Amino acid sequence: MDRISRRSQVAEGFHFGGLRISSLLFTDDVVLLASSGEGLQLALERFAAECEAAGMRISTSKSEAMVLSRKRVECPLRVGDEFLPQVEEFKYHGVLFASDGRREPEIDRRIGAATAVMRTLHRSIVVKRELSVKAKLSIYRSIYVPTLTYGHELWVVTERMRLRIQAAEMSFLRKVAGLSLRDRVRSSAIQEGLRVEPLAGEIISLGWPGNALVFPRISWRRWLGRGRSGLLCLGCCPRDPVSDKADEDGWI
Known about the structure:
By secondary structure, this protein is α+β, with helices and mostly antiparallel strands. It is built from eight helices and ten strands. It has two domains: 2-100 and 220-234, no CATH class; 104-205, no CATH class. The strands form four sheets. The protein has a four-stranded antiparallel β-sheet, covered by helices on one side. It has a two-stranded antiparallel sheet with strand order 1-2. α3 (104-126) runs antiparallel to α4, α3 (104-126) runs parallel beside α5 and α4 runs antiparallel to α5 (159-176). It starts with a helix and ends in an 18-residue tail after the last strand.
């Protein structure tokens, strides 16, 4: 797949700082990116030709296209005689992308998934008196936080979203501390007592290790809403690592 991708490279692509990205590869999944519909069609044709030369073919039943723009822009793409469906939402490695560039739906999904985790662990771990606070905080850091913040490198956190993330975080920590909202104890006091750093501040600062690519700190909608961004996914995108039976919009 690496050889096919290298041989089918075109001048189109997205520019992040000094980098030009025209494709993303993961096992047999490929995402082609271009700044125009014409450029994306050209990249698709070259990629299809290289696949055929290697004895492979594009699975059109598992391929979809999406244009990232504030307004809906038609982008008819075809592989041979087949046109690819254009979608408004696109889930890639468990992260939901919307065609209008909004990140709120994805953050809402993460909060919902984290809430489901807390419900599952509520009686067996969170409020179980036999478990120490240290053990509960270990579960919090190893399961709850990764579920809540999966894909946070792409988030543009507004004040409203910061408060929602903080509320989700504190719903777990209050129960660990044996408190409720009726006790009227400030969140900062609970975090200080448990020796836990505020989660929202760490997300906003992008201070966690593993950020291989730092995106421009401007609105995702503003940056992608200039009518020049096209995106195409080829192949079968893996589902979200967090089980979410209520979400039927994911790709299979």
